[in-house]
Specification:
Number of helices: 2
Helix content: 55-70%
Largest sheet: none
Shape: elongated
Order of helices and strands: HH
Distance between the termini: 60 Å
Structural class: mainly alpha
């Protein structure tokens, strides 16, 4: 097996692994957990202290 074929097989497997992981995470993680996580995170532009460069 040539190096090109091995790399192609490796990257195809890696893409498949990420695709399956994404699908499983979408099925397993509840939507309310995502909503609660997004509520805790504040956008960087809303923080007044981040504008203070002293």
């Amino acid at each position: 097996m040539s190096a090109r074929a091995r790399l192609a097989t490796f990257f195809a497997g890696l893409i498949a692994l990420f695709g399956v992981s994404y699908a499983v995470a979408g099925a397993v993680v509840p939507d309310d957990a995502v909503d609660r996580w997004q509520e805790r995170v504040e956008p960087a532009g809303d923080d007044e202290e981040s504008m203070d460069h002293d």
